[in-house]
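Entry type: protein chain
Record version: 2
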Amino acid sequence: MAADDGLRPMIPHDWDPTGPTTQADPQSELARLRRTCPVAGSQNWGGFYTLTRYDDVVEASKDPARFTATVQTVIPASPRKGLPRLPLQKDPPESTRYRKGLNQFFKENRIRAIEAPMRDLAASLAEALVARPTPEFGTDFAAPFTVGSLCILAGMDLSEADELGKLGHDYVAAVQGGDMATAGAISREIDGFALRLVADRQAAPRDPETDIVSGLMAHEPEGGPYSGEELAGMVRLMLIGGHVVPRNFLCSMAWHLAGDADLQARLRADRVDRRLLIDELLRCYSPNQALVRVATRDTEIGGTRIPGGCPVALNFLSANRDAAVFPDPMRFDEARNPNRHIAFGVGPHMCLGLSVAKLQARITLDVLASLPPFSTGPGVRWARWTEYGVTQLELRFA
């Protein structure tokens, strides 16, 4: 429903991202916007614009001087009190201070080191999944796998995964439901989790090669060592972004395969280029539908005037279906090459964890190929704005 007050002037209501038409078929609604009003206005949440075409999304992503991340990064706006989300809420050059420290944990040798324990975790979860009378892929595999992977990457104990997973799930649900009081309370709990983790490592540092907080403490960034708040802010962002969105993508992968028995069979027979398949799944099921920037001044993009101070959603999901970039964009093509999707964003805020996300996808494909033939049960639920993809997926095995 459109906002009743506080509406930014002159913003048209071209679409409602939470309305029944969009919820029923978001891809068709985004295709309509690309054709008729590619810079689409919405009067929800006080008013904002959405960029739906590839070139416009790329342009805004690469121009923090006009479109800043320092004011707002999601819509509806999440609670801003408490720890900063670093480096997401900083523009270059300030964001570089944090990205350089974090980058060391996403290099090829680090990813190779965590692959074996991630595969072990996935194998144990898959075994339990098959044994359940009513297997639900989100709860029984995707959620514990993504949270567990995060714990392995960060050097946290797997015993902390349950608390972390519940906090992340409940926080996103509260924000999407517009319950900002609950979201704020959960956000403070997540802050506390991050602060306790940092305090623990400050008191007893672990191996900086395998523990992210200890590694960041040992890093020597420009401008001096990270403060405790900076360390906790980097951890805080990772605690939410590192598992809620990936869970949706892994569920979407399983949902797609559940509806394509032929692709399942070829995957089991190793007759599929898995790298190309993952990229096409990312293009079609971009789990982080949009991130938000705020116009720093009156400006123009895609032929539309944007007033200074106005939030602008960069819609990666829509950009990845732009016919100007992707031939026959609404068709799923497992062999699409080249595939210039921007599911991980683009520019100075491109997702740091894309290598881990792709490793999770490769391992999940291996798990899905190892399962008996499967189809979807009646329990399927899809995410809401600003996420995209399947959040709940009941499976039936042949």
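Comment: The chain has a mean pLDDT of 92.
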